[in-house]
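A reminder from the course coordinator: this example appears on the midterm review sheet, so study it carefully.

Given structure:
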């Protein structure tokens, strides 16, 4: 029996009542696939990459909630709430925990960062007392510095929304360090820069559900390459009167 496992080994949807197959979020192909097949989570970093509405954020939010993390961001001990917007999926997931793995974790959700900053300022450690006085990117990186500091389970939902190109490279360094120290990361992203982290598992999410792909085969990467080589090929359709 293996005693050195990541915090989450596998995710399944609990059988039984509670989720209507004809209603959201079960109508999202990625969620329907999770219900049918489950999802094995490897060590290190896993990226979910897909278009808006593909279900990548719904999956990350639900898995974070099932782990016991605050749905609006924070650790298992965070209790701040504003307006609940997450799906009920998290209440119906069964996580296979890693044998010998710790219970620490943290969730960063781009759309609820303002509320998280307020909570952290009210329960401050060190420089977190001034998060609202920093730029969005600076405050985000400060939370990474103070909270992503030990092996655990870290969930992120579109973290690049707060970050410049150079700051995204800093995030890559943080995620690499977390993985090297035995932590596990699940991250939904639109960023081809972030998803290029060496050694990461990349799942492309779309109308087919989710599937593991190579970074260079991501539709996102192919579009960015084509756009940067010849922006006008795209913009003439966008700006055509």
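Designed residues:
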């Amino acid at each position: 029996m293996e005693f050195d496992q990541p915090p989450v080994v596998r995710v399944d949807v609990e059988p039984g009542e509670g989720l209507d197959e004809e209603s959201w979020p079960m109508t999202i192909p990625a969620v329907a696939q999770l219900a049918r097949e489950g999802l094995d989570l490897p060590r290190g970093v896993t990226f979910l990459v897909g278009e808006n509405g593909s279900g990548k954020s719904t999956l990350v939010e639900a898995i974070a909630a099932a782990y016991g993390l605050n749905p609006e961001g924070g650790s298992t001990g965070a209790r701040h709430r504003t307006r609940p917007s997450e799906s009920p999926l998290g209440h119906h997931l069964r996580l296979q925990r890693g044998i010998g793995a710790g219970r620490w974790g943290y969730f960063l959700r781009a759309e609820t960062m303002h509320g998280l900053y307020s909570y952290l300022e009210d329960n401050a450690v060190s420089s977190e007392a001034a998060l609202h006085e920093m730029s969005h990117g600076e405050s985000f990186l400060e939370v990474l510095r103070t909270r992503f500091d030990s092996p655990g389970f870290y969930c992120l939902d579109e973290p690049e929304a707060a970050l410049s190109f150079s700051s995204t490279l800093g995030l890559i360094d943080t995620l690499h360090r977390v993985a090297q120290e035995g932590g596990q990361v699940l991250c939904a992203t639109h960023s081809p820069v972030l998803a290029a982290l060496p050694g990461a598992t990349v799942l492309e999410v779309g109308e087919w559900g989710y599937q593991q792909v190579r970074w260079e085969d991501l539709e996102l990467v192919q579009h960015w390459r084509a756009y940067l080589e010849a922006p006008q090929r795209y913009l003439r359709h966008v700006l055509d009167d």
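Strands lie at 8-13, 39-40, 44-50, 93-97, 105-109, 153-157, 184-189, 201-206, 209-212. The first helix runs from residue 29 to 37.
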